[in-house]
Design brief:
Blueprint (H helix, E strand, L loop, with lengths): L11 H4 L24 E2 L4 E4 L5 E4 L2 E2 L5 E5 L5 E3 L5 E4 L5 E11 L2 E11 L9 E4 L1 H4 L5 H13 L9 E3 L35 H10 L3 E6 L16 H11 L3 E5 L12 H16 L6 E5 L17 E3 L11 H15 L11 E3 L7 E3 L5 E3 L4 H13 L4 E3 L8 H7 L2 H7 L8 E6 L2 E7 L5 E7 L5 E6 H4 L5 E5 L4 E6 L2 E6 L4 E8 L2
Parallel strand pairs: 2-9, 10-11, 10-19, 11-12, 12-13, 13-14, 14-15, 15-16
Antiparallel strand pairs: 1-4, 3-7, 5-8, 6-7, 8-9, 17-18, 20-21, 21-22, 22-27, 23-26, 24-25, 24-27
Helix pairs in contact: 3-4, 7-8, 8-10
The protein binds alpha-D-galactopyranose.
Alpha-D-galactopyranose (GLA) binds next to loops.
Length: 512
């Protein structure tokens, strides 16, 4: 067979950029075409629910409104609202149900299969949503959370699969605080935790979120106090979970914080203990609550996070702990950690490695202001591409009410999100490294391969993804995922020019 090597050089926007370390020198180029007017169904293709639990799923679809929705083969107990596309009810019988979602508008109809698995496993694909921490930190309020839910709908993010609206730290009472909006009785007479005056009615808040077909997340610590010194769940775990269920939460981030004072030592058993306790309590609830372990990677949590009941586990410290060093943390806690510890071996349906939130758009600079992310545009493309290759939860933590077009484009490219949400659930890994140039890949359920060519160094560089490294053979059809454009057929290798700290993100399908 004639060996023909077709070289494809992808660099359009990137070549045009002036390569310079300072962000202001790099143009923020929107690579992705806007969604068209015809309906397109997006987001996960797989959904886990427990028997009897309240079911809530909003069909994510882009396209002109008004749009109407229908679902074929819905299992007994579920109904869909044709105007909103929100599916509600409860499934009593365990099993795997294949349903056909349909979304129609004046431009046509889109159809897509959704597999609903009614069993014990939640988070069968990585969670997608928004978290308050990196933009609102200790200023979060009920009003901010409502506005975030509103913005998830009005920005269109929900139409691409974003679902969870999660409050981070600082909603409980802060013992000893002189701020009247943080004071109060930490618990009621039955011992259940109270919210502080900034959250006057948690049930009304989750009702507001659920009315959109979205889900609500909350946060606490197994220690006596949270990381920001608000009331934690220590010795009140069951009462507090009952409260979260009464309030209607669907997601719990359980953050180690002051549990260091309680743990006897740093042994694996002590690291696991609070998570075993909380997941056991969660399992008994008449409501599905996804559990996110946050303990900064201690005790190689990836090896046991799933076993103790976690649906995801933070693999390192805070990605945005130092605003100025977010870029460094991205490369260290993202690329290096995942490659060196081979973390791809541990994530999968029901339990995902969590490298922390998407630090895009406007973030707190921890000096009382919200300012644009310090990541350069190319670093931002690398950030999202890497998270999708790693099968990481896609939780945006910038200001969702203040999304510029570039940030929205980064968050809502459906072909990029499809890599993250691939139902096979096999995280990607680094397959080649030459100095600062790296090739990462993730196998997809349909037999294709998502491939990221990353340039972690300075200057524009040519990166080769060789078939022998990727483990593929023969001619491959190449599609550029950020540009949503076919770029031809390649044989033997795929080659692209990649800007400083940038990425070219493609998907390969055998072409014969
Ligand atoms: C820790 C966590 C962060 C955030 C803060 C809140 O630092 O890792 O994600 O939840 O606590 O105080």
């Amino acid at each position: 067979m004639k060996k023909k090597v077709l070289l494809i050089v992808l660099s359009l926007s990137m070549i045009g950029m002036i390569d310079h370390a300072a962000m202001s020198w790099e143009t923020a180029v929107i690579l992705t075409p806007a969604p068209g007017p015809a309906p397109r169904i997006n987001g996960t293709r797989l959904f886990g629910v427990r028997p009897g639990s309240p079911f809530l799923f909003r069909i994510p679809a882009t396209g002109e409104r008004p749009m109407s929705f229908a679902v074929e083969n819905l299992p007994a107990g579920l109904t869909v609202d044709p105007l909103t596309g929100i599916i509600t009810g409860a499934i009593l019988e365990r099993g795997s149900y294949s349903v056909m979602l349909r979304a129609s508008n004046s431009k046509g109809t889109a159809a897509r299969e959704l597999r609903i698995v009614c069993g014990d496993t939640l988070a069968v694909t990585p969670h997608m949503g928004w978290n308050s921490w990196y933009v609102w930190e200790n200023h979060v309020t009920d009003e901010i959370m409502r506005a975030a839910a509103d913005a998830m709908i009005s920005s269109g993010m929900a139409d691409h699969g974003y679902t969870y609206v999660n409050i981070d730290d600082c909603w409980p009472v802060k013992p000893g605080s002189t701020d009247p909006t943080l004071r109060g009785e930490p618990r009621d007479k039955s011992g259940k935790v109270n919210s502080n005056p900034r959250f006057p009615d948690m049930k009304a808040l989750t009702d507001h979120i659920h009315a959109y077909g979205l889900k609500a997340g909350i946060y606490t610590s197994p220690g006596p106090t949270t990381c920001a010194d608000h009331t934690g769940a220590w010795k009140h775990e069951a009462a507090d979970v009952e409260r979260f269920v009464e309030w209607g939460f669907d997601f719990l981030k359980y953050d180690w914080c002051s549990y260091s004072q309680i743990a006897k030592d740093k042994s694996r058993e002590e690291c696991q203990k609070p998570y075993r306790v909380i997941s056991e309590i969660l399992r008994r609830q008449p409501r599905d609550i996804v559990l996110n372990l946050c303990q900064y990677g201690m005790g190689d949590v990836w090896e046991w996070g799933k076993e103790v009941g976690g649906n995801s586990w933070r693999t390192a410290g805070d990605l945005g702990g130092s605003f100025e060093k977010i870029g460094l943390a991205l490369f260290r806690d993202g690329f290096d950690l995942y490659a060196e510890k081979e973390l791809h071996r541990f994530g999968g349906p029901g339990g995902w490695n969590d490298p922390d939130y998407l630090l895009l758009g406007y973030l707190s600079n921890w000096k009382g202001q919200t300012v644009p992310t310090p990541l350069t545009p190319n670093e931002q493309y690398s950030h999202v591409s890497l998270w999708c290759l790693l099968a990481a939860p896609l939780i945006f933590s910038g200001d969702i009410t203040r999304l510029d077009d570039f940030t929205l484009n980064l968050l809502t490219n459906d072909e990029v999100i499809e890599v993250d949400q691939d139902p096979l659930g096999l995280p990607g890994r680094r397959l080649a490294k030459e100095g600062d140039l790296e090739v990462w890949a993730r196998p997809m359920e349909d037999g294709s391969l998502a491939v990221g060519l990353f340039n972690r160094g300075e200057g524009l560089k040519v990166i080769e993804a060789k078939w022998e490294d990727l483990g593929v053979r023969g001619p491959q059809k190449v599609r550029d995922l950020w540009r949503q454009r076919d770029v031809g057929v390649a044989e033997g290798k795929f080659e692209a020019c990649v800007a400083r700290h940038g990425v070219v993100f493609v998907r390969l399908w055998p072409s014969d």
